[in-house]
Design brief:
By secondary structure, the chain is an alpha+beta fold. It is built from five helices and nine strands, in the order H-E-H-H-E-E-E-E-E-H-E-E-H-E. It has one domain.
């Protein structure tokens, strides 16, 4: 239950931090964001408009808001495999199905779980991930974690 609680609270935290990009870019709001962030948010809206008008992707509220999570990654994923195996451990989740990773909104919690799996003989990697999605359940925001190319272009993995 602890895992599902952190997942629900972490996902809710992302949604609560959403702010309308149109409002953030409105005249007189320059002090709210850096010039670089304002420009990147403008670009996300151009890309979003193109996706709907030219690629026939749905026009909905996803990526029309911004959430600053105050951290370099949205989630930290734990990936594990039995020692000397190429077959990853999988976890199955209600509504989302099965995946070869377990995501945490708190890095320390991910590392604790990774340590527990390692003590059971698994090869483990814990890595920060810039993107996060509610898989269509809610209107996903643009995150600060994927606006900064210094962190979003890479995922940090460690043992």
């Amino acid at each position: 239950m602890r895992y599902y609680s952190q997942a629900a609270l972490g996902g809710a935290d992302v949604l609560v931090k959403r702010q309308s990009i149109d409002r953030l870019l409105a005249p007189g709001r320059a002090e709210v964001l850096s010039a670089a962030t304002r420009e990147r948010l403008r670009l996300t809206q151009e890309i979003r408009d193109f996706a709907s008008s030219e690629l026939a992707l749905p026009e909905n509220r996803s990526y029309r808001s911004f959430a600053d999570l105050g951290r370099p990654f949205a989630v930290w994923n734990v990936v594990a495999a039995p020692e000397l195996s190429l077959e990853p451990k999988t976890w199955c989740y209600p509504f989302a199905g099965c995946a070869a990773y377990r995501g945490y909104f708190d890095e320390r919690a991910a590392r604790r779980y990774g340590d527990r799996l390692a003590s059971q003989g698994f090869d483990v990697r814990v890595g920060g991930v810039a993107a996060y999605s509610t898989l269509g359940w809610f209107a996903d925001p643009v995150l600060n974690t994927f606006l900064d190319s210094s962190t979003s272009s890479r995922t940090r993995w460690s043992t």
